[in-house]
Design goal:
By secondary structure, the chain is of the alpha+beta class. It has helices at residues 3-16, 33-43, 52-61, 106-112, 128-136, 149-154, and strands at 31-32, 67-70, 73-76, 90-91, 96-101, 122-125, 143-148, 159-161, 166-169, 177-179. Bound molecules: ligand HQG. Ligand HQG is lined by residues 64, 66, 79, 101-102, 105, 108-109, 112, 114-115, 117-119, 123, 134, 138, 166.
Length: 180
Amino acid sequence: MNYQKLSKEISYALRHAPWEYELEIDSDGFVPIEQLIRSINESGSYERPITKEDLKNIIETSDKQRHEIVNDKIRALYGHSLATHISKDKISPPNILYHGTTHKVFETILIEGLKPMGRQYVHLSSDINTAVQVGKRRDQQPIILKIKAIVAYKNGISFYKGNDKVILADYVPKEYISLL
Ligand code: HQG
C-alpha cells in the first residue's frame, strides 16, 4: 500500500475538495471515516480496498501531524482552502513563531504582512527547523521570518492551534515580522 499517495489524497479530499468525494464536512473539518473510505475505494486506485487501520497507520507513521481521528471521524488539522470556513481553537501563542518563505516573496511580506493567500489561515511554525522545511518546498535556501507572536496576540491578533508545530493566524501585520 502506497501510504504517501494515500496521505496526499486524504489531504486533498479533506483540505481542498470534500465535494469531489461526496463528504459531509462539519465546521471543525471532520468527516465520517466510512464516507471517506467508501469514496476512495470506489475509485479503485489502490492495490486493495483501504481500511480504517490504514488511515490510523498513516497518522501514526507520518513525518508531520496532518490528520486526526476522533471516534468515527477524521479531519485535516490545517491547510484548508475550502470556501466553507473551518473553525480552529484559539490559543495564546508562544513568544516567537517562524515562517519559512521564498526569496521571491519575502520583501512583499515585509511590506504587506503575512496573508493566508490560497488557504484559510496563515501557517506559522513553532520552531526554526520546521519553518526551514516549509520554506524548502519552494526555495532551496528559504528565508525565515520571525514573528513577535505574543506581542501581536496582546494587540488583538488571533492565533489558533493546527498541531504541535503548526500555529495558524488570520493575518500577521508587518510590524510583528522581521528577518531572522
Ligand atoms: C506566501 C505544508 C506574497 C507564504 C507546509 C507562502 C505548511 C505571501 C505562500 C502548510 C504573502 C502560501 C502551509 C504576501 C504569505 N505576499 N506572498 N503578503 N503572505 N505569502 O502553501 O505556509 O506538507 O499556502 O510565505 O509544511 O507555505 O502540506 O502556505 O510561501 O505547514 O502538510 O504565500 O502546508 O504542509 O503558501 O504552507 P501555502 P505555507 P503539508
